[in-house]
Amino acid sequence: MNFENIEQLIKLVKENELKKFKYKDYEHEIELDFTDEHVSLPTSPLTGTGQTETSSQDNSQPKDSEGQGEDAQTVNAQMVGTFYLQEEKELTDPIVKVGDNIKKGDVIGFIEAMKVMNEVTSDVEGEIIDILVDHGSNVEYDQPIIKVK
């Protein structure tokens, strides 16, 4: 992969306002992380596991206008795709609603990627105070989906 291709890739990622992007083939691995305005561009051939780490991300929650930022946590998208609050594309009976209590491991929705519905599970416990993504909306990797208190 040459430098011009990398420049074009960075430009496309920024134009589409993506926060993270990862590309991997048999020879190269490129990971872009704009969450902290740092870019990681490992382009060396893969060796061993082929995994590279990007800059650490600050997971602290900003204080929102309702004053719930201090103890609020989020459940984030585990992949890129289309988020649904139930298995069907027509919203009739969402799995979770604002005010529901969830536990770690509970299914809170689905992300459709490559025509496969993947369960989104909670990694936090508490009461849902906000659903940040509409049913049928596209999500990015690690994008907050629901806010839990």
TrEMBL record:
Disulfide bond in keyword set: no
Protein name: Acetyl-CoA carboxylase biotin carboxyl carrier protein subunit
Region annotation (Disordered) ranges: 34-76
Organism: Staphylococcus marylandisciuri
Domain (Lipoyl-binding) ranges: 74-149
Pfam families per the UniProt record, alphabetical: Biotin_lipoyl
Keyword field: Biotin
Biased composition regions of type Polar residues, renumbered to the chain: 41-60
